[in-house]
Amino acid sequence: MTLTISPIQGIPEVRAGDDLGGLVAAAVPTLQDGDVVVVTQKVVSKAEAAMAPIDPSDPRGHRAIVEAESVRIVRRRGELIISETRHGFVCANAGVDLSNVDEGWAALLPEDSDRSARRIRDVLRARLGVEVAVIVSDTFGRPWRRGLTDVAIGCAGIRAVVDLRGTEDSRGRELQVTEVCVVDELAAAAELVMGKATGVAAAVVRGVDPAWLGQGNVRAEVVRPPAEDLFR
Amino acid sequence: MTLTISPIQGIPEVRAGDDLGGLVAAAVPTLQDGDVVVVTQKVVSKAEAAMAPIDPSDPRGHRAIVEAESVRIVRRRGELIISETRHGFVCANAGVDLSNVDEGWAALLPEDSDRSARRIRDVLRARLGVEVAVIVSDTFGRPWRRGLTDVAIGCAGIRAVVDLRGTEDSRGRELQVTEVCVVDELAAAAELVMGKATGVAAAVVRGVDPAWLGQGNVRAEVVRPPAEDLFR
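Above: the input entities. Below: the structure tokens describing the complete assembly.
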């Protein structure tokens, strides 16, 4: 099983109200059944107009938006806020982002990224006649480790976490716990061909295990409820 | 830029003292300059005899090994210990693993996974005449998000974190902070073709940005010093 990961070139600048699924379909008419399309949060937020006006010269403006987008402040140090969003994601600045957006605007997280992924998937089925999976990705930091990695904030057509508990390891003994978050691994893989400054906002992964395809949902499968979390 | 990720088939059962680089060279003689070879911790630990004897019927035995491998207990709930290893990694059970090893033994983390990666890289250069990067990967959980993902615990021939601070975004403005941990993203990508129960312990990623290649070190670049960490 070899995976290939290719950037999707040719998606034009995305504006509020754009049909993002249609733009992807036009850019990669060669999509095949079983492909995984990874789309970055930034263009999803732009298409959905998940934006807030901001005075870039006033740091309090940014902070106010971050606090409005947060349901719980987890840590605060200087200007950095680690908070929980209403979706349950814990990340820096509640996912509010000032890069690669028009001056005077901040990009917010989509209202429901799993729904965003389903809509794109439905458009790709309607336009191209293919059953693909869709992941909406974003760039998050993590405790203990430097450097950012891309993770999934929404998905459709693929299980977010693949549960290998109870299958046997290569010695024939039962594996203890092996629930792999394949949508996060796919989001990370896709980031490798997108870069941050090149304007490429989507990628296609071809060759994933067909057993992973099916109904999936990041908020339901990946977001860890506070009661079972040791770090909130 | 298209990436391909392929499992490395045909590495035999690894035993203490085996020349792991030589086994990889024999399994993929077609390696090319610039390829990234990802090898899982389990086979590195086996080759380096980083193992401890354990009585599988005695849960205290496992706990004692975990505590011996830890320099700081970060959280504890029931049998689960989240701790910091002497390398600075924060993970469940100090990385001590009972799956896919012989009954009566526990696999420990390699003493110095960056050194392990350098050794494999040196053997591949000597045997095959190629300049490749090598990543040693392991499977870690994370706060806030369910499901495990593979991350890098050692690397050679590739920068662990690629710093895009100061480069311009697509609007020509300076990006705020975009340090991407590419070795973690590559480890995650490689896991997608390895699975947990198939006995495939390594993969090759072809097509990475040549600008990332060069000296790198997970412990120096990725491990976040406790003083700048908000979650210890």
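Note for the figure: Chain B has two domains: 4-49+112-223, 51-109.
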